[in-house]
Amino acid sequence: MSMLKEFREFALKGSVVDLAVGVIIGAAFGTIVSSLVDDIIMPPIGLLLAGIDFSTLKLILKAGAPAVGDIPAVPEVAINYGKFINAAIKFVIVAWVLFMIIRAMNTLKRKEEAKPAPVAETPADIKLLTEIRDLLKK
């Protein structure tokens, strides 16, 4: 089997296509969650906390300096814990949504498993033998 044919069979398997769709939807969902946290959730929280914008919170370890004449600029060294807080909130939202989706799927599986199995129809030869037995009893 040629490598190209083998790759085509691998790439066209249902699970690979499903995975690709999941990754694309996940990326889009991540963008939505980022916007939800940055644009909707964090501004009111910042307002309640005296106008603090979490994304700008940082601990400066070494102050930066702009370029002056022949002296190059010195970049600032800081720990951006505000961005970490935003990322943690995004993680909690994504984890909660995934939990709810998996919980709903498990509920549907339980309902499907709880359905009684359909009663199999008695085969014709067994019906015939039952009728003969009943006639012999009479």
Write up what this structure looks like.
There is one protein chain. The protein is mainly alpha-helical and 138 residues long. It has one domain (3-128): Large-conductance mechanosensitive channel, MscL, domain 1 (Non-ribosomal Peptide Synthetase Peptidyl Carrier Protein, Chain A). 67% of the residues lie in helices and 5% in strands. The protein has helices at residues 3-11, 14-48, 81-114, 124-137, and strands at residues 59-62, 77-79. A two-stranded antiparallel sheet has the order 1-2. Helix 2 crosses helix 3 (81-114). The longest helix has 35 residues, at 14-48. The model has no long low-confidence stretch (mean pLDDT 84).
Explain briefly what this protein structure is:
The protein has 138 residues and is mainly alpha-helical. It is built from 4 helices and 2 strands; from the N terminus they run H-H-E-E-H-H. It has helices spanning 3-11, 14-48, 81-114, 124-137, and strands at residues 59-62, 77-79.
What's the arrangement of secondary structure elements?
Elements: H1 3-11, H2 14-48, E1 59-62, E2 77-79, H3 81-114, H4 124-137
Antiparallel strand pairs: 1-2
Helix pairs in contact: 2-3
Features of this protein?
138 residues; mainly alpha; Non-ribosomal Peptide Synthetase Peptidyl Carrier Protein, Chain A; 4 helices; 2 strands
Helical proportion, percent range: 55-70%
- Give me the CATH fold name: Non-ribosomal Peptide Synthetase Peptidyl Carrier Protein, Chain A
How would you write the strand order of the largest sheet?
1-2
- Radius of gyration, taken over Cα atoms and rounded to an integer in Å: 32 Å
Structural class: mainly alpha
Anisotropy-based shape: elongated
Order of helix and strand elements from N to C terminus: HHEEHH
First-residue to last-residue Cα separation: 70 Å
Instruction: Give unreliable regions as ranges.
Output: none
Q: Note the total helix count.
A: 4
What count of structural domains? Answer: 1
Overall mean pLDDT: 84
Number of strands: 2
What is the CATH class name? Mainly Alpha
* Superfamily (CATH H level) name: Large-conductance mechanosensitive channel, MscL, domain 1
